[in-house]
Design goal:
The radius of gyration is 25 Å and the shape is elongated. 37% of the residues lie in helices and 15% in strands. The chain has 457 residues and is of the alpha/beta class. The strands form two sheets. A ten-stranded mixed β-sheet has the order 8-17-16-15-14-13-12-9-10-11, with helices on both faces. The protein folds into two domains: 195 residues, Rossmann fold, CATH 3.40.50; 228 residues, Ribokinase (UDP-N-acetylmuramoyl-L-alanine:D-glutamate ligase). A hairpin with a 5-residue loop joins strand 15 and strand 16. Helix 3 runs parallel beside helix 4, helix 6 crosses helix 12 and helix 12 runs parallel beside helix 14. Its EC number is 4.2.1.136, 5.1.99.6.
């Protein structure tokens, strides 16, 4: 269901040590890393004068390899360093570079800048004697490529620890790290390329990949495809958006429960003015969605309480999340879909990165938590977590969260585990946004869901 593993700095070091224990040397890994970056730079930028910035650690060692390989291709290459190499492997690669090494502070800019100052593991702000020249040289360059990570970002939390210069390309070495997908660092990466250097690792954190959602077969019918019940509330248009998204997202039967009339929408959505508990008593109900446009009054509270006690798979969004404040652990592992404001109200000010906070919230609530935003994180109570690839900023418009909730409900109703259903919904949501293009509104997402779903068959 999900894509590439994402390793923290500690997990990356452990993966490297495991490879080194097999007899592969640090120097061999450094040559491989420098090789993939040099190849990516050559293919991306072509034959342009290049300045490679080298730090004192192994990332700087990669930089010396890059410089040597690009020079061998006939490029005009210069190297500037923030100091002398401090590891044996980096010193060995420095010795193989046959050109001068300029002090970082005195270096003149070049059209292509390759940043090999600091990679994985940075935890404190860059010192001004490094941050200043880096910013000056980066802003003067026409193209910028980062080796593994842009210098000055926190590997595990995506925090900015440096000047925050944007790059046109980042070549991630071996595996993705959280900063490749967490904001604000992710916005600096440009085109993200994963360089294979024969180092891999296992993590409970992954990138949300394209789900596999098989088309209905000859034995399927509307109920096996998933019956989703959506509770209407004070703003029935929001519930209708969710219902339409669930329908276009693959569910076979949609029941919209409430009193609203005249809103339009597909005739195939079944509308029932009946007690929610009676509708949820049907054993064919695969999932219930409560929250979009629900309201926060006594009637809304009653609907939520009925849903929580019905024993059906649940997706809880928007106003339902506000009504859940103080609830503690929830029954049946529902999927909760808060944005940052709702998350803070529901769980308080939790410490750590977005990944840490989502995991803590999932464990406390015994729910799958979809922490929405430009770097959406999905977390399960067992510690699994996933980060979405960047989605279009045009999603920052009213109703798109209602669409996401409906997509998650559709996948929950078809029988997916809550974590997998949430990840599938997030992926389809982002894919539909990309297809809809600039200026999208929530209704446009629904129109593009069939094409997004087609990509998953």
């Amino acid at each position: 269901m999900n894509g590439r593993p994402i390793l923290t700095a500690a997990e990356t070091r452990a993966a490297e040590e495991a490879v080194f224990a097999t007899g592969v040397s640090v120097e061999q890994a450094m040559k491989a890393a420098g090789g993939v970056v040099a190849e990516a730079a050559w293919r991306y930028a072509g034959r342009v004068p290049t300045l490679v910035l080298c730090g004192p650690g192994n990332n700087g060692g990669d930089g010396y390899v890059i410089a040597r390989l690009l020079k061998a291709r006939g490029l005009k290459v210069r190297v500037a360093a923030s100091g002398e190499p401090k590891t044996d492997a980096a010193r060995a690669m420095r010795a193989r570079w046959d050109g001068p090494v300029e002090p970082l502070a005195e270096a003149a800019p070049a059209p292509l800048l390759i940043d090999a100052l600091f990679g994985t593991g940075l935890t404190r702000p860059l010192d001004p004697p490094i941050a200043g020249p880096l910013e000056r040289l980066a802003r003067a360059a026409r193209l910028r490529i980062a080796v593994d990570l842009p210098s000055g970002v926190g590997t595990d939390d995506g925090a900015l620890l440096g000047p925050g210069v944007a790059y046109e390309m980042t070549v991630a070495l071996a595996v993705l790290k959280p900063a490749h997908r967490l904001q604000p660092a992710a916005a600096l990466m440009g085109r993200l390329v994963l360089g294979d250097i024969d180092i891999s690792g296992v993590s409970k954190l992954v990138e949300i990949g394209r789900p596999h959602l098989p088309a209905p077969g000859p034995a399927d019918h509307k109920y096996t495809r998933g019956h989703v019940v959506v509770a209407e509330g004070a703003m029935p248009g929001a519930a209708l958006l969710s219902a339409m998204a669930a329908q276009r997202g693959g569910a076979g039967y949609i029941t919209l429960v409430g009193k609203a009339t005249g809103l339009g929408g597909p005739a195939a959505i079944v509308r029932r003015d009946a007690p929610l508990g009676d509708v949820l008593a049907d054993d064919r109900v695969g999932a219930a969605l409560v929250g979009p446009g629900l309201g926060r009054d006594a009637v809304a509270r009653s609907l939520l309480d009925v849903a929580l006690g019905a024993g059906r798979p649940l997706v809880l969004d928007a106003d339902a999340l506000v009504l859940l404040v103080g609830s503690g652990a929830l029954p049946g592992m529902p999927v909760l879909t808060p944005h940052e404001g709702e998350f803070a109200r529901l769980f308080g000010a939790l410490p750590g990165s977005r990944i840490d906070r989502a995991r803590t919230a999932a464990e406390r609530s015994r729910a799958v938590v979809v922490l929405k935003g430009p770097d959406t994180v999905v977390a399960a109570p067992d510690g699994r977590a996933a980060i979405a690839a960047p989605a279009p900023g045009w999603l920052a418009t009213a109703g798109t969260g209602d669409v996401l909730a409906g997509l998650i409900a559709a996948n929950r109703a078809r029988g997916l585990h809550p974590f997998d259903a949430a990840c599938a919904g997030v992926w389809l949501h982002g894919c539909a946004a990309g297809l809809a293009g600039p200026g999208l509104i929530a209704d446009d997402l629904i129109a593009h869901l069939p094409r997004a779903l087609e990509a998953c068959l």
